[in-house]
């Protein structure tokens, strides 16, 4: 087991973000990682330690609570520093249980407690930890920043260990301004990057670019510091502030302030600014919010006149302070991310994790343990596999806002080559309204220009239905049918739809035009169940009502192949209410026959059944119920006997365990088509597109 102590070189170095980013990066690699903060620290010394809270929010870890700063000061003042280190070691042991690597977040000294600097070396020795230093290049070009950082590293290494080459692993530089793009390519090559020191060189382990999105507060975060009253809640919990504008001039001079993410601060009696802001909101610009200052209320007539703009989701608040006082409060807000802002926290940890030298981390870990595929590892692996050979994925709902945003993200991440079906101007206008910088090289195909090309081939594929040309033209008016024809003709590699259409709308054209792959009896589906510790595959939970033994075997073979394609070692459990020969009946016999057929058709697949769910999933129960099984207790692919069992089980696990499920992912078609939930988030759509891109590989 390794222990890494993350130590800051200066104030505001990005200590916490680097620490939790390291946890995410290691977890993605399937390494059993844990986290520990020895002494509680936060911006305003609040009761809850934010680093520990962030870890609880972004992972399934439950690290021990750190020692309070007050208790630390008391022990040090009374000369009980060894007692303090003993308590730290005891808590560390709790965190280190079953871990291969423990990330320990070091201490950040401040003007109030400079003594914390001297504690970092002592903690490193007490825990036998190796050290990674974290520094900030904010406000400096990288080469100038490196010189300053190297000077500090020399003395910091000396403080940790005189022979620091034995204990100091390297350094991570945060907020590198050279590349301002949050979408800069992940996994940058840091293989030969080092920092020159007096006594040799130190490995550069990460170069984290500046990302403006990490500083964007939600509008709701402003309520408490401003002591504001809400006039209209709107989308106060989801809109984010990208810029703040104090508007006190004539409207002629402030129109440029009305853009996505702008926070408008104005006196409550400035009806012209209020009207203009509401008009901007009514046109579709997602203004972050309107703050009315001066302890007065706007005219009821003005509010009534603006109601349509307000009802578009515009958050409106009032505050008793003047505009200048309000602006001063806004400029001095707590920079820490609230623990309930999961979207920004997730973006933070993923952003840091993407820009670390993961190859070095992998070599360093040298763990002999069998790697588990955790949900972060699974999502990371999906991106990696998709990025290795991105495919053209057609999106028939090309004018739908979430789909547009997902397409841009997929394009920038390089996981697919999205093809949007829709009107070019409408798509660009929607992107602008959402504040999305739409890349010029994303394909947009106007259906009006392409439908006629597929009339003849559509009629040929459906000739057994004796369709007339007029009927074919009518069917191709449906963008999903058009996209499916593009896939059938090989002009795209996959299709994703369903954000605003039913599952039947997505699947029906695929069954009619794509059809099943050779040797496959029926189309089926799987869900990727992202349990806290690993990802499991459940099939079929969405398509086949009551498959016979032959179909069930087919589903098992398909699901095994799907699992393998996504980096999951398939150990297939054929689920029933009976384990092996303990029960009888037609339902058990069906599963028993299906298991034998899988072994006959694909002898290389590790499969066992019938197995009860507890025998398939729990090692101790498996020893009793199926002691000689190579699958029981360690199954990764669960094949349910019918749709009733599969759908009920996946939903029960999903809801009771607060488990994220990805799917349904369709399998068995000649070419990949996947359906979305109509409540799918942008990130859901991104991963479905990436999954489809992998299937197309």
UniProtKB/TrEMBL annotation:
Keyword ATP-binding recorded: no
Molecular-function GO terms, alphabetical: phosphate acetyltransferase activity
Domain annotation DRTGG: ranges: 221-331
Keywords carried by this UniProt record: Acyltransferase, Cytoplasm, Transferase
Entry EC number(s): 2.3.1.8
Domain of life: Bacteria
Entry's Gene Ontology BP terms: acetyl-CoA biosynthetic process
Keyword 4Fe-4S recorded: no
Domain Phosphate acetyl/butaryl transferase: 378-692
Annotated InterPro entries: DRTGG, P-Actrans_bac, P-loop_NTPase, P_AcTrfase, P_AcTrfase_dom1, P_AcTrfase_dom2, Phos_Acetyltrans/Butyryltrans, PTA_PTB
Reactions accelerated catalytically: acetyl-CoA + phosphate = acetyl phosphate + CoA
Pathway: Metabolic intermediate biosynthesis; acetyl-CoA biosynthesis; acetyl-CoA from acetate: step 2/2
Enzyme class: transferase
Stored NCBIfam families: PRK05632.1, PRK09653.1, pta
Described purpose of this protein according to its UniProt entry: Involved in acetate metabolism.
Domain remarks: The N-terminal region seems to be important for proper quaternary structure. The C-terminal region contains the substrate-binding site.
Protein family according to the UniProt entry: In the C-terminal section; belongs to the phosphate acetyltransferase and butyryltransferase family. In the N-terminal section; belongs to the CobB/CobQ family.
Protein name as annotated: Phosphate acetyltransferase
Organism: Oceaniferula marina
Gene assigned in the entry: pta
